[in-house]
Amino acid sequence: MPGPVGSVGVVGAGAVGQTVAATLVSSGICHRLLVVSRTIEQAAALAADLDDMRQTTGSPVHPEARRAADLTGCHAVVVAVRATFTNTRADDVRMGGAAANAPVIRALATALCGYQGTVLVVTNPVDLMTRLFAETSGCPRVYGIGSNLDSARYRLTLGQLLDVPATAVHGHVIGEHGDGAVVCASSTTVNGTPAVIPLAEVRAELRTRPGRISAGVGRTRSGPAGAVLSTLHKTLGLVDGTEELTCEHRGDWLGIPLRFTAGQPVACLPALDAGEDAQLAATVTKLRGAYQALRRPAPSSTRLETT
Question: Which InterPro entries match (predicted)?
Answer without folding.
Answer: L-lactate/malate_DH, Lactate/malate_DH_C, Lactate/malate_DH_N, Lactate_DH/Glyco_Ohase_4_C, NAD(P)-bd_dom_sf
